[in-house]
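User: Structure tokens for both sequences below?

Assistant:
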Amino acid sequence: NSAWSSLDNLAFFIGPAFAALLLGLGSLELAFVLNALTFGFVAIVLLRLPANRPNQAAASESGDEAGAPAKSGVRQALGPLARPIAGLALINAADGFVFGGLGVITVVLAVDVFQVGEAGTGLLNAAIGVGGIVGALVAGSLVLRRQLGPPLLIGALVLAAGTAVIGLVVSFPVALLAIAVASTGALVLEIVATTLLQRIVPDAVRGRALGIVETVSVTAYAAGSFIVPVLGAGQPGFVLVASGVVMAIAGVGAVALLGRYAIVEPVLDPRARVLAEVEMFAGLQPARIEAALRAARIVAMQPDEVIIRQGDPADNFYVIAEGEVEVTQTAAEDPTARVLRRLGRGQFFGEIGLLSRVPRTATVTAVSGGSLVVLGKEEFLQLVSAGSGLTYGLLNFHRGTISGAGAAELTTDTGG
């Protein structure tokens, strides 16, 4: 989200400069034609994107639980989340209204208030772009927090303060700084709100929830772009201060509506947290671990149940939450199963086949009843790719090259 917004604001900053260059070297018609061609290129790129991720498409076709929310309807899936989604819609509406008005009233400010002409409008817009880049970078670190309520409120208050200051100052350089600060707050708010939406709403209906929130936001942006400049034509200072107050109130209201979704970490099955306790994953960013926890499934196992069978395709990664399993292996010349070892809580298996892209090299059977944390192939590979050298670390773990509890015993495969 942070990278996306950084690119967006770089484009906002660079685009007008490039347009000015085109107009200087060519004509208005040429500038519009080249701009149209860029949208044509983007359209071609979008047409080539897959409609579904492979695992989501398979789930929908097979009628698995993962595809159920989309079939059961938006109302049923989003009903329990009505309050937090309303909070996100509120903050996005206020942000859109204030920032939409701020983007247009810069003309009034430059010409009538600060009397710096059309060049001043360009400088104010450039300050918006610079502030947006700063906000995207700041938000990149804030969204790694498990508690996103405070960053959301801070973004709203910074936007509110910057907007109010623009309406109060008489110095153009100070106004440039203030509008950059307001833009920084707006981008922090936008990125944190987007991250919250992604955390709160299930995958299958996230597009619909995003559609609701974005529709409210764009409508408010259009309204602000019209109403704020019209009201500000006579008293821009008063309108901007009032807009800042509205933004601050909306920030407090949104955090209140979000409730536990913004204040405490997401609700997860306690058994799934054993995945975060795997020593190999200790250096990964919290956001990566949380994404894996959300993607993981809890599967019960019964005594003597075969979890994976030697020779089968590798599809999942497993961490034992409760119980024990036994790892056995047979050789071509000797069909008798040879016991390699037993694994208990917190230990994992199934990674070798996924990392090496080979069939299962051993059979894993439940010794007792219990439960497993199961991570699909795609989600597991995304998780291990987030850590430098983690793939090689997992492979070498079974060769005894990593010291630590239990590592000395692992001189052979454990079921990958």
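Moving on to the next sequence.
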Amino acid sequence: MTTPSFNKTAGFTLVELLIGMSLALIVLTAVLSSYVLIGRNFTRSLAVTSSNQPNLESQGRRTLAVFAQDVEVATAISGTPSASSLALTLPTSSGSMTVIYTYDSAAGTLTRTPSVGSAQILHSSLLTCVFSYYDNSGNPYTTYVNYLPGIKQVSFTLTAQAGNTTNNTLSAVYKLGSPRLLFRNKTLLY
């Protein structure tokens, strides 16, 4: 019985495999570190850091939730509404209370101030905040005087930006718009 002969030129030696794997590892390390560096620079250029963007989003979600809850139970709008403030009358177990939403453009804050209790800053770092009012057909009001009984829906839009330009932490502009919220406890008929 004869043993088969092996061709010594076919295949790789152990040394060749180790050198090839080492070179491949060096190339993959260079590619991965370049990818990480580009990702960090891109994130830094957008200023999306864990310290500001998620905070703007969480403030926006909380603002929308609190505002929607108040509008749904409101029985009336108090005073004269404007693009920067809104006063709602909410029912309570002992009667009613007034909740005032106020946008302070100098401080960049949206504050919710109930007639009973303490004020609460719902959102900070605001660039703009605008309340919009609509009739029962969804037509917007551009002036609010003498239209108070006809206002049946309300919405708000806001833009916010955190950080500052001096240390390159300025975030992207965060935009939030509420849907048109219907006053649940106000009749739709005049």
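User: Anything stand out in the second?

Assistant: The CA atoms of residues 64 and 138 lie 20 Å apart.
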